[in-house]
Design a protein that fits this description.
This protein is an alpha+beta fold. The protein is built from eight helices and eight strands, in the order αβαβααβααβββαββα.
């Protein structure tokens, strides 16, 4: 369903090179790729890669923290205590409509790294996911501070999207706080790892493992695309 939504988003665009997806080798999306490509009359090429990162968790949240470096562990604890002391809250299982509204509100705050196209694509994918993951941090005044989105498939939980109101809360480390709550919630449900779609930055990349993937390039049938497809297949 997530892959289907991505294809629909591509068909709505008119640029020559439309979409690149990084699919885990055992994913449902990869299994359905041939039939969906035929249905939408797409051109595609695929090459191996390792764009995703898997972060091992632990049997308990404290055990997970113990496996981190001293500074990272201190930051997880310090910023979460600070967040809670200020009266803010973590919210799990957000309704999709509320998540979508919050994402557009945060976008108006010029969130670093976010744009309307990226949000539209993420929302389209979450709306089609069988088991979406939609969570966030809400200020004591009621407005949203941070959002995290993804989906669960089989035994894999994937983080695809995160937005943080860092311009207004630059000293709160919202990204880290939201992830700390999310990791703890996964551990309580006996989930022992989480995948960051297209990777993750410092410091969590130090504790993560590359996941073999297949880079899939998709577009509408065009003469120029056939040339690019052959270049991709040749490793250019």
């Amino acid at each position: 369903a997530v892959f289907y939504a991505a294809l629909r988003a591509l068909l709505a665009r008119r640029r020559t090179l439309g979409l690149r997806l990084q699919l885990p080798p055992d994913s449902y999306e990869l299994e359905t790729l041939p039939s969906l490509v035929q249905k939408f009359k797409m051109e595609y090429a695929a090459v191996p890669g390792s764009n995703h990162l898997l972060l091992p968790l632990a049997a308990t949240y404290e055990e997970f923290l113990a496996g981190l470096g001293a500074r990272t562990r201190r930051n997880f604890r310090y910023y979460r205590r600070k967040f809670e002391s200020e009266g803010h809250a973590y919210v799990e299982n957000l309704p999709f409509d509320e998540f979508r509204s919050a994402a557009h509100t945060l976008l108006q705050q010029r969130v670093v790294g976010a744009d309307s196209d990226g949000i539209a694509r993420a929302l389209a994918m979450f709306s089609r996911a069988r088991n979406p993951i939609l969570a966030g941090l809400r200020a004591k005044e009621g407005h949203w501070l941070s959002l995290l989105g993804g989906w669960a498939e089989r035994a894999r939980h994937i983080i695809f999207f995160q937005m943080n109101s860092d311009r207004h809360y630059s000293k709160s480390s919202l990204c880290l706080v939201l992830r700390s709550y999310f990791f703890e919630s996964l551990i309580r449900r006996n989930i022992r790892s989480v995948v960051f779609w297209a990777g993750v930055g410092e410091p969590l990349n130090r504790y993560s493992i590359p996941v073999p993937t297949l880079n899939v390039y998709l577009d509408k049938p065009q003469k120029m695309w056939r040339v690019v497809r052959h270049l991709i297949a040749g490793g250019v």
